[in-house]
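Sync notes, pocket subgroup
Present: LS, DG
LS reminded everyone that the earlier model was apo-only. Rerun requested with 6-O-phosphono-alpha-D-glucopyranose included. Inputs:
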Amino acid sequence: MCGIVAYIGKQEAFPILIKGLKRLEYRGYDSAGVALLNGTLNVYKKKGKVQALFDYANQKELSGNTGIGHTRWATHGKPSDLNAHPHISGNGRLALVHNGIIENYCLLKKALEKEGHSFKTETDTEVLVHLIEEAQKRNNLPIEEAVREALTQVVGAYAIVVMDKQDPDKLVAARKGSPLVIGIGEEGFFLASDGTPIVEHTKKVVYLDDEQIALVKRNGEYEIRTIRNEVYTPFVEELTMEISRMEKGGYDYFMLKEIHEQPATIRDAMRGRLNAREGWVRLGGMDDHLEKIKSAERFIILGCGTSWHAGLIAEYLFEELARMPAEVEYASEFRYRHPVITERDVVIAISQSGETADTYAALELAKKNGAFLYGIVNVVGSSIARLTHAGSYIHAGPEIGVASTKAFTAQVTLLTMMALQIGHERGVIQEDYFQKLLNELNSLSSKVEKVLATNDKIKYIAGEIQHAPNALYLGRGYNFPVALEGALKLKEISYIHAEGYPAAEMKHGPIALIDENMPVIVIATNKSAYDKVVSNIMEVKARKGIVIAIVQEGDQEMSKIADYTIEIPEIEEPLTPLLSVIPLQLLSYHIAVLRGCNVDQPRNLAKSVTVE
Ligand code: G6P
């Protein structure tokens, strides 16, 4: 939620900021702004995408070797030029960009108003910049001290960068609950919400931790202190991103590129972790903790959105393959209902970004209660990756489309390997079945390619149902979470109301909605409940619903009753989600394109949800 980027050094700041903001646009895109320092402080802000800011600012005074930029996902105050960041102090001296929420901003605002401050915007951020101004004025403090002093009064989450017109050779950054990375370049410092704006300038980075404040100077010096003013020795790490993976590479949308990357990303998730020929699977992250993990009393799986759906699949996997009890929770619900957590619980956090605020906070709670935390994360070095005791990266590469696709299949691949390894270690999975699943995983990518080859048929079906106001997704067993995920994908990017349901539950409510205008997408690949799914489809057809069935290759029966079928290769049931979700991703994609929607940046959404 909201992306921030900043630069201080020898180069012109504006091109660095604009390019960085475009990279960060996945974090929010309702308005954008920059502030540039070259003796005077020039601030340009515009409602809309980063391109709108660029078009607006392009003709103006853009020189300056110091600058800060922001792309916004509105929380306090509607999207507008005025509410866009950067925000400026009352005396016009300070400029600030912020990602997060200042929860006590009302109280702070009232106190500042008594001191004579007046506010122009509806944002919590403007209060913060006035608070820093007040601290600076009252005690005649240098900017880094004023920031520290002000932040001791703040409740909430923030990643900020502050610029002082009267101290132009410094930038001050701080974080608590929202991410901030400092890139250390030959020609200056690059600060950003993640590594994507930094990687083409330098690979040397420092990840700021909570309650740390960084002072970076034009002369190349920098220092990090805690909010309690203790000096912190920074740990410089290397960024491992590749720039080419952040470009569309000839595809119309990132989402389409990411859907098509799945044969490779699924393979990457397994690389070095599974060898079917030798008959082993091993997650390095579990190495030192295997005893603890396999003897856990239960797994508590936490996530939000698509990651929660991956967690639901993991519940089936852990129970069936590892015979371990597992509970799946929305992180946001878990943290607020006094959950019973003990030292014998293993909490598995699933997060693409590694920054989702609710997941992070739920993990902090579990950690406080003594649970062991295992992270399944995509973004290397992210907050959740660093909070957990151990974990495995899914190695899906940057996912830029807001609707998650390749991260989901990589998460499920990883969770499958985890369940298999634990099941094998515990001796609860039959050796030949274990080997069979390893073989299947090994050849999975070519099956994914086969599913992707059905694209034209899916596009045709998309054309047939694109005007439907509603859609229903049904699945059983492993495919129930896939039905939820299919419905979520459609909602997110095409704005069609969609619901996912366990197929058998349809008759307890959703069946009332079915008429000749209702597309019902049924995932009908489960061998274990095939006849039951056929009955469910008959029930839909009897009410004139339009049935689109995802079926196994060569299924003759379904094609007689469904209006449309999409075939996926035959595969063992625990692995079906890895194939059955792909037609649903493509279906949503094509419907959204046909409806003229912005697939990569759907309205109101953001990819990294760093507010609660
Ligand atoms: C947002 C994104 C979803 C994502 C969810 C959880 O809602 O739009 O695509 O599934 O956050 O994010 P995480 O990064 O924790 O997986």
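DG: The chain has a mean pLDDT of 94.
LS: The pocket of 6-O-phosphono-alpha-D-glucopyranose is lined by residues 304-307, 351-353, 356, 359, 402-404, 605, 607, 609 (CB under 6 Å).
Action: DG to write up.
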